[in-house]
């Protein structure tokens, strides 16, 4: 019974999209850390990607509304530890990002390269060349950096590794 | 002043909040679009840190004040941010010099807080902030090098900014006797221990930028105990006017 309820909530949450990456669900981004029933309240643990991400409030509300379709008592709990990391994004989700024009995080090495002052190698999601250039480490949202392709000249977002 | 257990948190929170507000003044005024976006992004990270820290401070203070009440209904005398961070933005060089000095310090402070195990809630906030501040400090360091090792004019102007702000960097490491408070002792890193790594990190970038640090060691201070420059109250007036005029306003 409880198991069944949690499964139904989970399957509903699989349809909650990220407002800034509308082709991905918050589940796919690894932001849901757990779903449990505590004293008849469904407690959903959410880990924000960036502490200042303005989408966090919108995501909370979307999760609340979605889960309330299944169960009347829902509580969203923000969990800060362990800190969210791009390592929690699956390979499948990464290729979905690339298909939608956002270069996925390239594992930790690319991130370290930037922090050590080297140029990152981020392939263009459109033409796949490695000849791309970092325009700015800060992009359209907190989680993205701004790149441009030197071959096909397409500007594109890169999901930062954190 | 607030109770000692919460007041150290206010140091962290107010640093983040005040700098965030200053940086957001650049929104729409950045020298190029990418930099405009970068400064707004950094401001956004800082406001996120401030929200988490103020919420925690409010909880521990136990007076029922939430993040909004603490941000919008405290006066300048109740703010305990560093003087460095409340100064007007000046030109882009002033903004970057301030950011560079603070980022290097903030990174060391958050790394120490993320590593301690006494206060797990604070360690979690710090661990997240470390990841964000690494990006900020890489960004401001690159600007210092670009401006210092750039044209004669950019070099002269960034050097002037560094000279102007230098007297405000001493306060970064002043603890105002906070370490004598038994409750905060275990969590707060001894600020004096951050001087050497900070000097090393800052010195390396300054050398790479072919710039020089002033030799003076006298430090402006008072921010931590609520004695601010006149600039903070003007800044807060703008930041707080809406919630103070309409305390029940909702989006």
CATH class of the largest domain in chain A: Alpha Beta
- Major β-sheet profile of chain B: none
- Mean pLDDT of chain B comes to 93
The average pLDDT of chain A is 87
Structural domains of chain A: how many = 2
Overall outline of chain B: globular
CATH architecture of chain B: Up-down Bundle
Low-confidence segments of chain B, ≥5 residues, pLDDT <50? none
Proportion of helical residues of chain A = 25-40%
Give me the Rg of chain B, rounded: 18 Å
As a whole number of angstroms, the C-alpha radius of gyration of chain A is 18 Å
- What is the CATH topology assignment of chain B? Ferritin
CATH hierarchy class name of chain B: Mainly Alpha
Total of helices of chain B: 9
Which features characterize this protein?
heterodimer, A: 162 residues, alpha/beta, GMP Synthetase, Chain A, domain 3, 2 domains, 4-stranded mixed β-sheet, 3-stranded mixed β-sheet, 4 helices, 7 strands, 27% helix, B: 251 residues, mainly alpha, Ferritin, 63% helix
Describe this structure in words.
The complex is a heterodimer of chains A (162) and B (251). Chain A is of the alpha/beta class and 162 residues long. Chain A contains four helices and seven strands, in the order H-E-E-H-E-H-E-H-E-E-E. Helices cover 27% and strands 22% of the residues of chain A. In chain A, the strands form two sheets. Chain A has a four-stranded mixed beta sheet. With 251 residues, chain B is an all-alpha fold. Chain B has a single domain, classed as Ferritin, core subunit, four-helix bundle (Ferritin, Up-down Bundle), CATH 1.20.1260.10. In chain B, helix 2 (33-61) runs antiparallel to helix 6 and helix 5 (92-115) packs antiparallel against helix 6. Chain B starts with a helix and ends in a 6-residue tail after the last helix. The mean pLDDT of chain B is 93. Classes of the chains: A alpha/beta (162), B mainly alpha (251).
């Amino acid at each position: 019974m409880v198991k069944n309820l949690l499964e139904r909530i989970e399957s509903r949450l699989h349809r909650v999209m990220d407002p800034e990456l509308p082709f991905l669900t918050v589940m796919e981004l690894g932001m849901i850390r757990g779903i449990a029933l505590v004293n008849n309240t469904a407690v959903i643990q959410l880990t924000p990607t960036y502490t200042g991400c303005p989408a966090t409030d919108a995501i909370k509300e979307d999760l609340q509304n979605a889960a309330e379709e299944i169960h009347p008592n829902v509580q969203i709990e923000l969990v800060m530890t362990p800190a969210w990391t791009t390592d929690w994004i699956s390979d499948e989700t990464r290729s979905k990002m690339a298909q939608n024009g956002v270069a996925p995080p390239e594992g930790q090495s690319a991130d370290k390269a930037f922090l050590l002052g080297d140029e990152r190698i981020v392939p263009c999601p459109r033409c796949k060349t490695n000849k791309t250039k970092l325009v700015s480490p800060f992009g359209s949202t907190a989680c993205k950096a701004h790149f441009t392709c030197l071959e096909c000249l397409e500007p594109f977002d890169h999901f930062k590794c954190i | 002043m607030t109770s000692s257990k919460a007041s150290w948190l206010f140091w962290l929170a107010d640093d983040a909040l005040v700098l965030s507000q200053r940086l957001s003044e650049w929104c729409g005024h950045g020298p190029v679009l990418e930099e405009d976006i970068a400064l707004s992004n950094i401001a956004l990270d800082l406001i996120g840190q401030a929200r988490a820290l103020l919420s925690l401070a409010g909880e521990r203070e136990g007076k029922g004040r939430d993040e909004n009440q603490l941000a919008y209904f405290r006066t300048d005398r109740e703010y305990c941010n560093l003087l460095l961070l409340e100064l007007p933005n000046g030109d882009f060089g002033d903004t970057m010099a301030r950011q560079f000095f603070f980022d290097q310090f903030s990174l060391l402070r958050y790394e120490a807080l993320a590593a301690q195990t006494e206060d797990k809630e604070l360690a979690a906030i710090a661990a997240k902030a470390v990841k964000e501040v690494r990006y900020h400090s890489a960004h401001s360091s690159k600007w210092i090098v670009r401006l210092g090792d750039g044209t004669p004019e950019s070099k002269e102007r960034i050097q002037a900014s560094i000279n102007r702000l230098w007297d405000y960097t001493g306060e970064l490491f002043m603890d105002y006797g906070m370490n004598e408070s038994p409750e905060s002792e275990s969590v707060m890193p001894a600020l004096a221990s951050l001087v050497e790594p900070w000097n090393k990190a800052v010195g390396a970038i300054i050398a790479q930028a072919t710039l020089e640090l002033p030799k003076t060691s006298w430090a402006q201070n008072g921010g931590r105990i609520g004695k601010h420059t006149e600039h903070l109250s003007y800044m807060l007036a703008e930041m707080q006017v809406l919630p103070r005029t309409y305390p029940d306003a909702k989006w």
